[in-house]
């Protein structure tokens, strides 16, 4: 008698993960300080696991009721944020996978609403007339605020030939706004207070910036005082090493200058002296054995100059191939001319 053999098998059907949009959260809106819960439900076989990450790769702030810990990711269908802040605002991704490709994800946007706040870098700005002046206000608010500028009369300022109004937005949802007001060619009528205003559905805030006049800096150049006496060397055929002597004028106006050798008023015209007829009186001694000369003018001031002659090199310092001569002219006391060995 023949027998029958039965064999039973199990067929397991694997299904890739699929996110159930009806059971999952859409975009979530919460007020700062409240609780926000993000939910992501996925179907598939085997049952998919859910991983949460932030789209901008920032940390997820997870709390257990006592401490808050930053995490790169979070496992579970629900992401609970019991005390949301503006830093939690942004896009979150829930990723579903069950080892059956492909894995799927859903993007959920968390919006956190809060009262506007304003930060002013400079509340007092000093500037001279005739230049462009820029005022700045930095605003944070969600929902996105309405912003504008007002002058001291409460008039709203718009971009024109006189003003330039601009703003830039940053951070998720554009909740950070950088306001700028540029006043072109500052005049006396532009001096005074200006107000930046920001408002949204949560509240309104404003801050004031004051412009005041500051004159341009001026520089005064002190009068130039002479620090040395200029002398002009006259090249002659004579081997005399003495340069012409030019006394420093003692007054701004020209006066009569006389030269005297010892007690004798002079010098007599002609050699061994040469004198100039210009504004500065110059006496050049062409030859002679030396002596002293002085100059005087109607201002009754005078200076003395002593001139010493040196013998030829072969007589003065035998055995040396050169001589060094120094002429020192002093207004207040005579200094002799001497030769160095």
Describe, in plain words, how this protein is organized in 3D.
This protein is an all-beta fold. The protein has three domains: 15-113, Immunoglobulins (Immunoglobulin-like, Sandwich); 120-213, Immunoglobulins (Immunoglobulin-like); 258-340, no CATH class. 1% of the residues lie in helices and 43% in strands. The strands form eight sheets. Strands 2, 5, 8, 10, 11, 13, 16 and 17 form an eight-stranded mixed sheet that branches. It has a five-stranded mixed sheet with strand order 12-19-18-14-15, with no helix packed on it. Strands 21-20-24-25 form a four-stranded antiparallel sheet, with no helix packed on it. A hairpin with a 7-residue loop joins β22 and β23 (283-285). The termini are far apart. The model is unreliable at 284-300 and 314-341 (pLDDT under 50).
What labels describe this entry?
341 residues, mainly beta, Immunoglobulin-like, 3 domains, eight-stranded mixed sheet, five-stranded mixed sheet, 1 helix, disordered C terminus
